[in-house]
Amino acid sequence: MKQQRQYFYFIGLVILATLFTQGVIHYYIWLKKNDSRVVNVAGRQRMLSQKVAKLSLQINTAKDPIDLQNELTVVLNEWEEKHWGLFYRNKELKLSGKNSPEILNLFEQIKAPYTNILSNARQMTTPRDSSQLTKLLEVVLANEAPFLSGMNAIVNQYEKDSDEKIIRLQWIASFMGLLIVLLVTAELFLLIQPMFKKLLEREATLTQKNEELTQQKELISLQNQNLQIAKEKAETAAYTKSRFLSNMSHEIRTPMNAIMGMLHLLIEDKPRVDQKDHLDTMLFSAENLLVIIDDILDFSKIEAGKMTFEKRAFSLTEVIQQIHKSLLPKASQKNLVFQIDQANNIPDSLIGDQTRLSQVLLNLLNNGIKFTEAGSVLLQIKILDRTAQEIKLRFTIKDTGIGIPPEKQELIFESFSQADDGTTRVHGGTGLGLAITKRLLEMQGAEIQLKSQVNQGSQFSFALTFPIGQQAKGQLSKQGKALKNAVLPKLGKILVVEDNLFNIKVLEKMFSLWKVEMDLAENGAQALEQIKNNDYSLVLMDLQMPVMDGYRTTEIIRSWPAVKYQQLPIIALSASAMEEFRQRAFAVGMNDYITKPFIPKELFQTIERYASVDL
Ligand code: ADP
Questions:
Q1: Which positions of the chain have pLDDT values less than 50?
Q2: What's the pLDDT tens digit per position in 87-117?
Q3: Which of 16, 160, 169, 476 would give a disulfide with 28, using CB separation of 3.0 to 4.6 Å?
């Protein structure tokens, strides 16, 4: 910065010096012109004085001197004018400048001859007698020589003065030229050279930096490789974790199935009032345990990036009715008003993932009921936007419960976090519900919003867009009958393909209650044999079994040519809630999918649905 300024100063100086030199040169030219004019006039003055002498001579000898006298007057006028012009450096005669003291001295010396010549010659311009003229002429001629030598000295002095001035100017000009050269050289050395040096240094630093960068790049690429390896390891770890969780939940679900199945049977089996109470508590705990397992599984699926969403037609009204039905008992137990306010012009068939929608709504409504001691819990569904192809709905879940303090409102969406540390003791829960809900909504492009005030209540809301389906599917429309003494209509024998003894026991009990005949196969291979030799109205097929699994078995059955094997209802019974298993089951040709532990009512309804199909 400083150097830049110096550089400009230098340039400024060089320009000034150049301009000054230019001025000197112009002055030099002007002076030269002026001086030569002065020398010229002085020369002419000499010549005029000679002309005066000559005319005076001619007048003296002429018979008729009138013309000569007139001419002499003109010459004298000019002579006089030029004389004083030179003396005073008359500007009108373009004689600028000043006479030097030497010149003035010389003028002083010719003053007498000049005045003598002038006054005597003037007298000769008027008529006189010849003796007078002769006298006058003598004076003129006598002064001519001193005047001429005086004028010569003046001309010489003029030339000398001019030469001196010009030499001085030449000196100045040369000095300026030298100064410019010096300035430029100094600039070259003092500024340009260091700048150049700096540039070279900079280039050297850049080259060095470049080398360092190349080294760093290599290091980064090495680190990248390491990162890649670490990423792969992490992915494998995540996959292993998700696999482990999936297997674990499968392992837990299988015995849970037996526990819950037996509990349902015991409750149905006219227990004593005190026993019924204990059984209800056990069932409640078992259901809670199942929710926790499902949450952990869902969470691990989201973390592993394995969560997928179905795009199937469903009836929103039926989903909502189902939710209402399942939560109403809990709400009523706490004397809460539980209300659904659904806009009535929502199309009946929407396309999307009904299970995930139910999960989100159930979670938010469950929380609403859980954290509200008095008042109401409300689910509101409004239309935000609608086109011929799709509809955007806003779901709002409002409660009048304990509310969430502002500083906790972000935290509760984190995994394993609860607004109040005492929550687990009072209400249970893992702190995963909202984290899952938020992620499930985010994955469908929706954002969950929360407004809450402590002791006033909470309001969760989100907006989802659904494509509008073709027709309303009445999947959920068949309401279950009371199970007690329920009998499945015109249903033939059922084949249960299952290897777990407890599950078999639960199913045997249930079927005997519903008066349904059943056969048993312990694996797929056995099942194929039995299906060939019997006419079953329905097959309940476990998926994971020794010898031959449920998928392969179903594929083989469906590959048999007879139409009855294409139409035979095969329902998957699986302990895995993973979507990929479900999709695979449908892909190999199964008709439906029930997750263990199954709720007896759900199993009953599913079988009932297929029982009415004419074989
Ligand atoms: P949990 O399994 O503990 O219910 P969630 O993720 O569903 O886990 O909820 C996290 C926490 O957020 C809850 O423990 C509770 O403190 C708070 N919370 C959630 N919903 C509500 C609500 N409607 N009213 C008050 N607090 C709530």
A1: 425, 472-484, 613-615
A2: 988 887 788 888 889 999 999 999 999 999 9
A3: 169
Give the Å distance between the CA of 50 and the centre of ligand 1: 133
Q: Which of 560, 536, 533, 550 is nearest to 585 (CA)?
A: 550
* Residue 23 neighbours by CB under 8 Å, 6+ apart: none
Note if the bond before 347 is cis, omega within 30 degrees.
no
**C-alpha to C-alpha distance for 573 and 404, rounded to whole angstroms:** 41
Nearest atom of ligand 1 to the alpha carbon of 401: 24
List pLDDT tens digits, range 236-287.
887 787 778 777 777 787 788 788 888 888 887 788 888 888 888 788 778 7
Ligand 1 binding site (Cβ under 6 Å of any ligand atom)? 367-368, 371, 399, 401-404, 412, 418-420, 423, 429-435, 458
Average pLDDT of the residues of the chain:
85
Q: How far is the CA of 296 from the centre of ligand 1 (A)?
A: 16
* Of 586, 558, 557, residue with least CA distance to 572: 586
Rg for the chain, CA atoms, rounded: 62
Asked whether the whole model's pTM tops 0.90, one would answer no
Q: Which two tokens stand for residue 49?
A: 């004085």
- State in Å: Cα 333 to ligand 1 middle: 20
- Quote the strand ranges of 299-370, DSSP E: 312-315, 337-342, 349-352
Closest CA to 154 of 116, 110, 97: 110
